[in-house]
User: Which sequence fits this backbone?
């Protein structure tokens, strides 16, 4: 396996304010995400594959790219979901109820779209399912801005979803 590299955010650190603060993005990208990349590379130097750190790096790259600066009426392209409000409720419930650290994920599977949760960064055993929209609900992703109010963080996330990126992932 090759070493990973820390990729830049596709926007400025403060671009997601007020939904996610510059301070959180700096810590999240430069410390947490970079930590997964660096720890994966350190393990590789020692002849080991660290699935935890590899998946942590990959999931964050998927996450950075499916966000953009907040927009009014930030809605998915017409026809992406049969019932967008139903999907929104389902995805939000998945995000709010992740126990401990993890992710809400919209998967593209051979059988269609599916909403689920990931505990920590556990991407093993997904049988080819592909994450098309992810939301990090580890405390490091929101605590500085929202304290223990994960529900408000999840509600505000809908303002900053980059639907063009999500649509592209669905097509590919
Ligand atoms: Mn994170």
Assistant:
């Amino acid at each position: 396996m090759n070493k990973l590299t820390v990729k830049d955010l596709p926007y400025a650190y403060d671009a997601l304010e007020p939904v996610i603060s510059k301070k959180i993005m700096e810590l999240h990208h430069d410390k947490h995400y970079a930590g997964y990349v660096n720890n994966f590379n350190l393990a590789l130097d020692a002849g080991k594959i660290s699935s935890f750190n590899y998946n942590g790096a990959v999931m964050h790259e998927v996450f950075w790219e499916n966000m953009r600066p907040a927009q009014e009426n930030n809605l998915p392209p017409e026809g992406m979901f049969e019932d967008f409000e139903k999907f929104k409720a389902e995805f939000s419930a998945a995000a709010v109820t992740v126990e401990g650290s993890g992710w809400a994920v919209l998967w593209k599977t051979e059988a269609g779209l599916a909403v689920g949760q990931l505990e920590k960064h556990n991407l093993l055993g997904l049988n080819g399912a592909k994450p098309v929209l992810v939301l990090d609900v580890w405390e490091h992703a929101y605590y500085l801005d929202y304290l223990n109010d994960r529900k408000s963080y999840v509600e505000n996330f809908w303002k900053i979803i980059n639907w063009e990126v999500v649509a592209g992932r669905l097509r590919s």
